From TrEMBL:
Belongs to the eIF-5A family. Residues 1-12 have a biased composition (Basic and acidic residues). Residues 44-113 form the Translation initiation factor 5A C-terminal domain. GO terms for molecular function: ribosome binding; RNA binding; translation elongation factor activity. Keywords: Hypusine, Protein biosynthesis. Residues 1-23 are annotated as: Disordered. The keyword Protein biosynthesis applies. This is Translation initiation factor 5A C-terminal domain-containing protein. It comes from Hevea brasiliensis (Para rubber tree). InterPro entries: IF5A-like (IPR001884), IF5A_C (IPR020189), NA-bd_OB-fold (IPR012340), Rib_uL2_dom2 (IPR014722), Translation_prot_SH3-like_sf (IPR008991). PANTHER family: TRANSLATION INITIATION FACTOR 5A FAMILY MEMBER (PTHR11673).
Length: 118
């Protein structure tokens, strides 16, 4: 073998990724993920259940909180299926509980549970 030293100058990237694949269930809040080649911080998401009290004509709902106060600043969901379930159940006089997801200062109704007739 030769005792000569070989020096290589490379200005190209070896193609190694700066990210690695990960299952969705292992992502931690306040961690980072890549969506469409852009880094995004994973937000803290909270889930809260409220009892539906009323639906106003302008599309807002009145919800009962755990401590007995009302929450009147949420709109009905835009999902047609969920929207019709909420309106139909309320019109039938059922006791409904809506699930609200909150993240980054925004809230949205995302699910509905029927807890029986009034």
């Amino acid at each position: 073998m030769s005792d000569e030293e070989h020096h290589f100058e490379s200005k190209a990237d070896a193609g190694a990724s700066k990210t690695y694949p990960q299952q969705a269930g292992t992502i931690r809040k306040n961690g980072y993920i890549v969506i469409k080649n852009r880094p995004c911080k994973v937000p803290h998401v909270t889930r809260t259940d409220y009892q539906l009290i009323d639906i106003s004509e302008d599309g807002f709902v009145s919800l009962l909180t755990e401590n007995g106060n009302t929450k009147d600043d949420l709109r009905l969901p835009t999902d047609e299926n969920l929207l019709s379930q909420i309106k139909d159940g309320f019109a039938e006089g059922k006791d409904l509980v809506v699930t609200v997801m909150s993240s980054m200062g925004e809230e949205q109704i995302c699910a509905l549970k029927d807890i029986g007739p009034k």
